[in-house]
Structure formats: C-alpha cells, structure tokens
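Thread: "does anyone have the structure for this chain?"

Original post by V.I.:
We have the sequence but no experimental structure in hand. Need at least a predicted one for the grant figures.
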Amino acid sequence: MTGSLTIAGLGPGDEALVTPEVTAALATATDILGYAPYVARVAPREGLTFHPSDNRMELQRAAHALRLASEGRNVVLVSSGDSGIFAMASAVFEALEETPQYQGLPIRVLPGVTAMLAAAARAGAPLGHDFCAINLSDNLKSWAVIEKRLRLAAEADFAIAMYNPRSASRLEGFGRALSVLKEAGCGDRLVIFARAVSTPDERIEMIKLSEALPEMADMRTLVIIGNSATRRVGRWVYAPRHAR
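Reply from O.Q.:
Generated one for you, tokens below.
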C-alpha cells in the first residue's frame, strides 16, 4: 500500500483560516473527496480528481477514500471546520473498523478551525470558561439523547456551542432545544447567533435566550449559549475565567 489518506478540516470559510498543513496536503493530493460544497472549495489543477458526494453518505465516502488510498492514491478527505468535530474523521475510523485490510494504510488527521472557535472569536470570548458542544441533528441519535444532554449542560452551567441547529428537514428541533433551555432556567443567558462566519454572508447577533426564535438559525448558523456568568463589555461578550 503506497498511497495515503489525509482527513482535513478546511476551516469555517475564509481561505486565510485554512492551516498551512492542510494547504500542503491539498497541494500533493491526487484525489479530493467530501460533501460537494466542501469539495468545491478546493481549487482544481492538473492531476487532481474530485469525488463530491451527498451529505448523508459519510460511511460510503470514507470507504471510497480508504479504497482509493489502498490503490496507491494520495487521498484528501475534506470537511468544513475541523474534521474531528461532527465530521469525517470519525466516519473514516468507523469504516476502518469494518475493513481491517486497510488498517496498515498511512492515515493522518489534520486539525482545522472549527465553527465554534471562529464564532467565539467574532463575539469576544464566550468560551473562556468551561463549555461543551452539542450537535442538534437527530439523524444519528434520538431527540431524547439531545434533550438529556441539553438539560445536563444547563444544570452544569456550561456554555453550549450548538451545531446544525435547523435544516429544511428538521424545522422543529431548534425550537424544542430553545424550549428545553428556557425550561431549565436559562432565559437570561446571552445567546450568539453566528451565521456563515468568515464568509461574505457573515452575520452575528447577540440577544437573551428568552428573546431567541427558531427562525433565527439555519444550517449555516453556529449558536453559542453563554453560561450564567457570561456578560457584555461594549460590543463584546465574554465568560469570566473564574467560577462563582
């Protein structure tokens, strides 16, 4: 097996936030695989083959990447943000567990700037104390699991970064998440809606949770719920480093 597989995060959108390590991997790749909008972010060049696929084909995409690498190709499997956070790195290792013949392949996971870090930086420092990240998609887990984690995160007074809040096929979930957090006593917490951070469509809104509406988010939005101590200073929002 002379090929290799690199799993890379392309960051939140701006080319300036793609790491030099990822840029170098893309420059030597023979094949790029990923969800079609993410593959489209890679510039074409001679000798580079693109393999775009649908959003819900993670395991098939991972298996395809492993197979190409086993055939001697230098494969880069791309995700947005960081490939290890709600993205393709886990899918590759799941596929690898099912196909042990590929376990001798050279595999690298390259970190990227994930959406919650880009959003937090635009807002100030809302993740300056303990925080957690929760994916609101119920494609791979039940809503009961999501609700339990939201309630426990609220009880523990974590700041909460919420990925994939609302899609065309999941219009109700984000509203349910807001209701759960309001019922848990988080109505006075600050909420940051960070849409398309680092792109020309970027929009940042900061309000109280009690004022938040489901339609304020879509799949390009990263939502950060502050902890109980999160506060404003001028136009910035931050979480104090100390706990009460």
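V.I.: this helps a lot. The two ends are 55 Å apart (CA to CA).
O.Q.: and Residues 135 and 163 are 5 Å apart (CA to CA).
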